Automatic annotation (TrEMBL):
Recorded catalytic activity of this chain's protein: uridine(2552) in 23S rRNA + S-adenosyl-L-methionine = 2'-O-methyluridine(2552) in 23S rRNA + S-adenosyl-L-homocysteine + H(+)
GO MF term set: rRNA (uridine-2'-O-)-methyltransferase activity
A Pfam family hit: FtsJ
Alphabetized UniProt keyword annotations: Cytoplasm, Methyltransferase, rRNA processing, S-adenosyl-L-methionine, Transferase
Similarity field: Belongs to the class I-like SAM-binding methyltransferase superfamily. RNA methyltransferase RlmE family.
Function recorded in the entry: Specifically methylates the uridine in position 2552 of 23S rRNA at the 2'-O position of the ribose in the fully assembled 50S ribosomal subunit.
Keyword Hydrolase in annotation: no
A GO cellular component entry from the record: cytoplasm
UniProt-listed InterPro entries: RNA_methyltr_RlmE, RNA_MeTrfase_FtsJ_dom, rRNA-MeTfrase_E, SAM-dependent_MTases_sf
Chain residues that bind S-adenosyl-L-methionine: 61, 63, 81, 97, 122
Protein name: Ribosomal RNA large subunit methyltransferase E
Source organism superkingdom: Bacteria
Domain Ribosomal RNA methyltransferase FtsJ: 29-204
Amino acid sequence: MARKGNKTGEWVRRHVNDPYVKKATSQGYRSRAVYKFKEIDDQDKLVKSGMVVVDLGCAPGGWSQYIARKFGGSVTVIGVDLLPMDPIDNVTFIQGDFQDPDILARIDEILDGRDIDLVISDMAPNITGVRSVDEAQYEGLLDSVLYFCDQRLKAGNHLLVKLFEGSAAHYYRREVKSRFKSGVVRKPGASRAKSREYYFLAKHRIAQ
């Protein structure tokens, strides 16, 4: 038990001293993750005025907050998460499962006939510590994101999703080849060096 406590204490100290955590706090952002998205957006020019962006698994809202702060009401941002989220100006939040038909109907109502230009997802599975279980859960999560894109992402537009090194990521990258024209890996500076996470930008969805 003491060993677990020591690990928790080390994580807390590392988190408190993290320069991106300090920067997020000083700039009024909800999480350090905002700088991961900012770096990718700066590099790839993902978000533009007039776009419709759907943020899957958005809570606590750092990515949506960044887009809303940068573009104001000129970009339509719809965030969806099972968890509650404090309101953000110029972001429409829906609490629920984005696979639920009722939630999808609410998204369609908000869209009011408009196309989705960009789907973003910084979701991660709840870790059990059992690798086979965690991999299976994450494959299911990625499947749900891809299915959402199949149904609602405008042809020619993009998906940005978080991946973790392992079989689920390999599976996803195979699947995405049949849906998008190209894909690029992004490992922003705000991602901790020892972390297995990286981001995959799937570009130019193919019309089905």
